[in-house]
């Protein structure tokens, strides 16, 4: 189960809407081992593409180092799908490399309603989990 | 020649949970061969067919090694190498 604060949920959706029709991506960091997504970090999609995303490698190094210094980890790794459902694609699964993270997908295909869903991706296996919005 | 290498969570099962290890080599490729001799299996997670794996980012003193020679990048004593899994995906 992913528990996430309303304000962070809203920031993820707003970022996805703003970058539409390109895919948006980012993380929510939290204290290591806490499973609490607390610090929203928007990332650049180096691909600037409607069908692909990749963190900019140098920005990623900077953000990962900040997390290290603050004893944080990426609790949530999010990205958007702009024309398909919020379900991990084969590419998403093959790249998934943080077994402890909640992989959050937002679909912006419907201009009125955002669809946000959360998954664990472990050894190529996808498990959807409930999302509880708090605050 | 000691090079400090930071290991990401996903590869720490190969380093006995060590976050930072030391290795040696005149180039990045040699460093990875050296690491693989002490942490068997780590080499193939980093290199495939003589090239850096696409899913892996490697930084030499904060530079993405893809821009400084890849596996041929020259190393000096005291250099820092950081390995991070690339974060990427897409709707296809």
Q: Secondary-structure blueprint of this entry?
A:
The complex is a heterodimer of chains A (135) and B (92).
Chain A: E1 2-5, H1 6-19, E2 25-31, E3 39-43, E4 52-54, H2 57-69, E5 72-81, H3 90-95, E6 102-107, E7 115-122, E8 125-129, E9 131-134
Parallel strand pairs in A: 1-9, 5-6
Antiparallel strand pairs in A: 2-3, 2-5, 6-7, 7-8
Chain B: E1 3-6, E2 20-23, H1 28-38, H2 42-46, E3 47-48, E4 51-52, E5 56-60, E6 63-64, E7 80-85, E8 88-90
As a percent range, the share of strand residues of chain A is: 35-45%
Q: Name the largest protein-protein interface in this structure.
A: A-B, 36 and 19 residues
Number of strands of chain A: 9
**Average residue-wise pLDDT of chain B:** 94
Low-confidence stretches of chain A at least 5 residues in length (pLDDT < 50)? Answer: none
Helix content of chain A: 10-25%
Q: What spatial form of chain A do the alpha-carbon principal axes imply?
A: globular
Query: Strands of the biggest beta sheet of chain A: in what spatial order?
Result: 3-2-5-6-7-8
Radius of gyration of chain A: 14 Å
Percent range of helical residues of chain B: 10-25%
Structural class of chain A: alpha/beta
Low-pLDDT parts of chain B are: none
The helix-strand sequence of chain B is: EEHHEEEEEE
Q: What is Rg of chain B? A: 13 Å
Assembly state of the chains shown: heterodimer
Number of helices of chain B: 2
Provide the spatial order of strands within the biggest beta sheet of chain B: 2-1-7-5-6
Give the DSSP E fraction of chain B (strand runs of 2 or more residues): 25-35%
Mean pLDDT of chain A: 96
Compute the separation of the termini of chain A in Å: 16 Å
- By DSSP, the count of extended strands of chain B is 8
């Amino acid at each position: 189960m992913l528990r996430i604060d309303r304000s962070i949920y809203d920031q993820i959706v707003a970022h996805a809407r703003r970058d539409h029709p390109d895919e948006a991506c980012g993380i929510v960091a939290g204290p290591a081992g806490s499973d609490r997504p607390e610090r929203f970090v928007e990332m650049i999609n180096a691909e600037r593409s409607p069908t692909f995303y990749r963190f900019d490698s140098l920005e990623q190094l900077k953000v990962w180092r900040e997390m290290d210094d603050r004893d944080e980890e990426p609790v949530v790794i999010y990205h958007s799908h702009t024309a398909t459902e919020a379900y991990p694609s084969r590419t998403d699964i093959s790249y998934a490399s943080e077994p402890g993270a909640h992989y959050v997908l937002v679909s912006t295909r419907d201009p009125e309603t955002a669809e946000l869903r959360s998954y664990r991706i472990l050894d190529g296996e996808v498990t959807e989990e409930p999302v509880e919005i708090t605050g | 020649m000691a090079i400090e290498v930071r290991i990401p969570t996903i590869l720490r099962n190969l380093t006995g949970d060590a976050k930072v290890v030391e290795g040696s080599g005149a180039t990045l490729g040699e460093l990875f061969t050296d690491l693989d001799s002490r942490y068997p299996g780590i080499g193939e997670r980093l290199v495939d067919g003589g090239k850096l794996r696409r899913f892996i980012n490697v930084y030499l003193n904060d530079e993405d090694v893809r821009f400084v020679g890849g596996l041929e990048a020259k190393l000096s004593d005291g250099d820092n190498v950081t390995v991070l899994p690339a974060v990427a995906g897409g709707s296809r």
